[in-house]
């Protein structure tokens, strides 16, 4: 049976790769890269660097996500069609680049359990394409851990809950969940909405990379300035990834 290694590579630095990740990668006959159309040149370069360093010569097989109709007449049917097409492309790539008992690696940014669809896509592929395989997941360092380490802070205060959400969900997040709340996938500056005079923010962009930028302070004081900084950084690099922790300090 084939083994699919879903390997968390950490969010940012090649030094985040664990020994377990390196051993999974070294065992692979090929690396399958799911190109969801948002892959940035710097991220692709990091993936190539990791393969060149730890498994030189291992081919990277890019599977481009098939196009999807975002406003279909029949939404469910279109999603089913899209999943099936993606599963077929992926299974074809795996079958033609590895033996029946071979090893295939998927390199996942950060950790595979956090806002990543690789495991879901593999599940579709197993169900729809009958690909017999064992899935081995290697945990990776998430952007959240890189953020808290960079600022030298705890993720929670004593026995306090932690809420993790996306910027899209932030406006509907309750005041109690916002007391200690990590926000990811923010295309704008979600922190500038609905803050109180006690809302403190620890913010980080390009975490773990040489371009890392950190800011911290009360949102009322630094919120607008960080929003402006984010625009400038996006213009400078052509893309940006940021993560932040909002906490009520009252
Ligand atoms: C699709 S999610 C992937 C999360 C990833 N699986 C993880 O474990 O961190 C992408 C989001 O993660 C966060 N992120 C990932 N890498 C980051 C980095 N190096 N610096 C800042 N934020 C990052 C951003 O919020 C970004 O919008």
UniProtKB/TrEMBL annotation:
Keyword GTP-binding recorded: no
Keywords: Cobalamin biosynthesis, Methyltransferase, S-adenosyl-L-methionine, Transferase
Signal peptide: none
InterPro entries hit by this protein: 4pyrrol_Mease, 4pyrrol_Methylase_sf, 4pyrrole_Mease_sub1, 4pyrrole_Mease_sub2, CobF
Domain of life (superkingdom): Bacteria
Any single biological process term in GO: methylation
Metabolic or biological pathway: Cofactor biosynthesis; adenosylcobalamin biosynthesis
Entries under Gene3D superfamilies matching the protein: Cobalt-precorrin-4 Transmethylase, Domain 1 (3.40.1010.10), Methyltransferase, Cobalt-precorrin-4 Transmethylase, Domain 2 (3.30.950.10)
Keyword flag RNA-binding: no
Residue ranges constituting the Tetrapyrrole methylase domain according to the UniProt record: 3-220
GO molecular function, one term: precorrin-6A synthase (deacetylating) activity
PANTHER family linked to this entry: COBALT-PRECORRIN-2 C(20)-METHYLTRANSFERASE, PRECORRIN-6A SYNTHASE [DEACETYLATING]
Protein name: Precorrin 6A synthase
Taxonomic source organism: Corynebacterium vitaeruminis DSM 20294
Organism classification: Bacteria, Bacillati, Actinomycetota, Actinomycetes, Mycobacteriales
């Amino acid at each position: 049976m084939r083994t699919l290694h879903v390997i968390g590579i950490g969010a940012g630095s090649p030094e985040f790769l664990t020994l377990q990740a390196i051993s999974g990668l070294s065992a692979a006959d090929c690396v399958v890269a799911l190109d969801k159309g948002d892959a940035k040149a710097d991220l692709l370069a990091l993936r190539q660097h990791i393969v060149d360093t730890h498994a030189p010569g291992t081919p990277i097989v890019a599977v481009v996500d098939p196009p999807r109709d975002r406003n279909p007449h029949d939404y469910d049917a279109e999603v089913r069609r899209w999943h099936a097409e993606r599963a077929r492309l992926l299974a074809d790539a795996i079958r033609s680049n590895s033996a029946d008992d071979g090893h295939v690696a998927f390199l996942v940014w950060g950790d595979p359990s956090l806002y990543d669809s690789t495991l879901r896509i593999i599940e579709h592929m197993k169900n729809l394409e009958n690909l017999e395989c064992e899935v081995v997941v290697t945990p990776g360092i998430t952007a959240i851990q890189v953020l808290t380490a960079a600022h030298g802070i705890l993720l929670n205060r004593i026995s306090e809950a932690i809420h993790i959400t996306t910027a899209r969900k932030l406006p509907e997040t309750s005041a109690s969940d916002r007391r200690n709340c990590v926000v990811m996938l923010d295309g704008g500056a979600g922190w500038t909405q609905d803050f109180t005079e006690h809302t403190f923010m620890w913010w980080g962009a390009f975490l773990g990379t040489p371009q890392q930028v950190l800011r911290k302070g009360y949102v009322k004081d630094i919120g607008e300035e960080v929003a402006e900084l984010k625009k400038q950084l996006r213009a400078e690099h052509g893309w940006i990834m940021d993560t932040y922790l909002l906490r009520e300090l009252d």
